[in-house]
Amino acid sequence: MLLIRNEKLRNAVKIAVPFIIIPSITIAGALFFDGKRHILIALAVAVLSLVLFAAGFEKKSTGTRRMVIVAVMTALCFAGRFIPFLKPVAALTIITGLYLGGEAGFLVGSLSAVLSNFYFGQGPWTAFQMLAWGLIGLFAGMLSKPLLGNRILLLLYGALAGLGYSFFMDIWTVLWYNEGFSIKLYAAALVSAIPYTMSYAVSNVLFLYLLAPPFGEKLQRIKVKYGV
After folding, report:
1. Tens-digit pLDDT profile for the chain (228 aa)?
2. If you ran DSSP here, which 8-state letter would residue 3 be given?
3. Is residue 166 a contact partner of residue 193, using CB atoms and an 8 Å limit?
4. Which keywords are on file for this protein (predicted)?
């Protein structure tokens, strides 16, 4: 398990990787890489997600234990993508971020996208999905204290995360269609995607309402028992 010991370096990685490096690679891949090399971008995002995860802990044993739980949550997200219409991927990513930290949430969201797309289809959109779900988990971890203290606020975050995911993926839609960004095309994409946007928001709220209490209780027990 990779361990980043220097505190300043860890803090730099936590900022640079999710907010600068991965977004830059994702957008550059959409603009300059052809469809045959999209898997290289997804692989780079996956590796950087692991680096970000490693920056989230100080002790090797803690990181190893957390990685096991992350693997389980990723597997659940993978299975969840096979549920028709409403999918629990973002909700499980949020729950991971709340209880295991934003870096773990980012890794679950990122890996869930790239692994499940080996079945649903890889493409330049994969890196956008990895980044979108990853950021949803990361922000959940950053906002864990208020979100865990207020269930209504948590459900509201789930709804906003669904909207944000759709808005972000529409950036990919415009870049793919136009080979550059256009405000008019982006507005049109937002309007045409309203049914999908609403389904994302509704599914997040529904699954957070159903899954957050039982999953949260079990993850909290694991944290206490194994010192995660």
Report:
1. 556 667 788 889 999 999 999 999 998 888 887 767 788 999 999 999 999 998 887 655 566 788 899 999 999 999 999 998 889 999 999 999 999 999 999 999 999 999 999 999 888 899 999 999 999 999 999 999 999 999 999 999 999 999 999 999 999 889 877 777 889 999 999 999 999 999 999 999 999 999 999 999 999 998 888 777
2. -
3. yes
4. Membrane, Transmembrane, Transmembrane helix
Q: What is the amino acid identity at position 204? A: N
Residue carrying the six token digits 């039982």: 214
Which CATH number do you get for residue 73?
A: 1.10.1760.20
110 SS3 class: helix
Domain-located, residue 158 = yes
Cα distances from 141 to residues 14, 33, 91, 138, 157, in angstroms, run 12, 32, 13, 5, 12
User: For residue 5, how many other CB atoms are within 10 A of its CB?
Assistant: 8
Q: Kind and range of the H or E element at 64?
A: helix 60-80
Residue with tokens 């860890």: 10
In a domain, 1, yes or no: no
Give the range of the structural domain holding residue 51, as residue numbers without chain letter: 7-226
Contact criterion met (CB below 8 Å) for 108 and 70: yes
Tokens at residue 86, please? 């409403």
Axis crossing angle, helix 89-100 with helix 125-142, rounded to the nearest 10: 40
Closest CA to 130 of 201, 27, 208: 27
